[in-house]
């Protein structure tokens, strides 16, 4: 499953300043660990061809909204990109090569495609990590919000309504939720989605691989350290598990889950001598 060259390429991206991260390339290197030998350059070239055609379609557009309407007609009409409503949790929806091959994805991977192409077609497009549903924001003259799952243009009021519907009133809408999300946070969110899929399937090695790459991007994330530590424990890597869980406690000693982590450390102390 693992591809060491893919991990090395991902490490290089993780060390890149945020403004210089190519989201599509980063997402393809995420996929390359699942698809050893994946030709990243080929898929970037394919995206470039799509962007060139999109640029031609947008020529002569009068204003941002018309440009977005033309881009949406190209992506969701001509090219038939679509959200995978039938099998939302299919892991292929999180691998950009599969999204480009099958023209199906989830909001975050479709947003990566959308933003990459929109920027090269002359639009100021950004990914927005809106709670529960990733969005795209274009800021040319006026703010325009797009649902990349199907191309619908949304108002702020519609975004707030969606949040109420999805969160049941537990999360209050804040306009800051519509601010552009940094590139490394977008890649981390993509990996968190994958991690949840592998955890549900009890595929601990794949889930661990996701946690490791998130920590390359966000090395001081306490919750990722906790998750990696728990995965190490499941895989009986006790010393690594203890180090991560102690680091979690150092970073978040007052977290509501801290007592459970302390109990886990006691259990690790019992298990390690017995098994090694």
List the helices and strands and how they pair.
Layout: H1 4-14, H2 23-32, H3 40-58, H4 64-78, E1 82-83, H5 96-102, E2 104-105, H6 107-120, E3 125-128, E4 135-138, E5 144-147, E6 152-154, H7 156-167, H8 183-200, H9 204-217, H10 222-234, H11 238-251, H12 258-275
Parallel strand pairs: 1-2
Antiparallel strand pairs: 3-4, 4-5, 5-6
Shape: globular
Unreliably modeled segments:
none
- Roughly how many Å apart are the termini? 27 Å
Helical stretch count?
A: 12
Q: Look up the CATH topology of the largest domain.
A: C8orf32 fold
What is the total domain count? 2
Class of secondary structure makeup? alpha+beta
Strand content: 5-15%
CATH architecture descriptor name of the largest domain: Roll
For the largest beta-sheet, the strand count, sense and barrel status come to: 4 strands, antiparallel
Characterization of this structure:
- Helix content is 60%, strand content 7%.
- By secondary structure, it is of the alpha+beta class.
- The chain has 2 domains: 4-178, Roll (C8orf32 fold), CATH 3.10.620; 220-275, no CATH class.
- Strands 3-4-5-6 form a 4-stranded antiparallel sheet. A two-stranded parallel ribbon has the order 1-2.
Summarize the entry for a quick read:
This protein has helices at 4-14, 23-32, 40-58, 64-78, 96-102, 107-120, 156-167, 183-200, 204-217, 222-234, 238-251, 258-275; strands at residues 82-83, 104-105, 125-128, 135-138, 144-147, 152-154.
């Amino acid at each position: 499953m693992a591809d060491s060259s893919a991990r090395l390429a991902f490490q290089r991206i993780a060390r890149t300043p945020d403004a210089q991260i190519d989201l599509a390339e980063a997402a393809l290197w995420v996929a390359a660990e699942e698809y050893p030998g994946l030709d990243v350059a080929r898929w970037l070239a394919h995206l470039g061809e799509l962007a060139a055609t999109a640029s031609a379609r947008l020529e002569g557009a009068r204003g941002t909204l018309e440009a977005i309407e033309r881009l949406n007609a190209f992506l969701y009409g001509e090219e038939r990109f679509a959200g995978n409503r039938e099998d939302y949790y299919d892991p292929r929806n999180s691998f950009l090569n599969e999204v480009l091959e099958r023209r199906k994805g989830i909001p975050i991977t479709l947003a990566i495609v959308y933003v990459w192409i929109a920027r090269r077609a002359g639009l100021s497009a950004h990914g927005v990590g809106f709670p529960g549903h990733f969005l795209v924001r274009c800021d040319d003259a006026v703010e325009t919000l797009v649902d990349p799952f199907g191309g619908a243009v949304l108002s702020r009021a519609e975004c707030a309504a969606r949040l109420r519907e999805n969160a049941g009133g537990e999360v209050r809408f804040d306009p800051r939720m519509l601010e552009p999300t940094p590139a490394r946070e977008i890649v981390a969110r993509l990996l968190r989605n994958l991690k949840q899929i592998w955890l549900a399937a009890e595929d601990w090695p794949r889930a661990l691989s996701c946690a490791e790459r998130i920590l390359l991007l966000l090395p001081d994330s306490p919750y990722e350290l906790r998750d990696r530590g728990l995965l190490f424990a499941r895989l009986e890597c006790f010393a690594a598990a203890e180090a991560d869980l102690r680091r979690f406690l150092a970073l978040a000693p007052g977290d509501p889950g801290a007592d459970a982590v302390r109990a886990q450390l006691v259990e690790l102390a019992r298990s390690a001598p017995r098994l090694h």
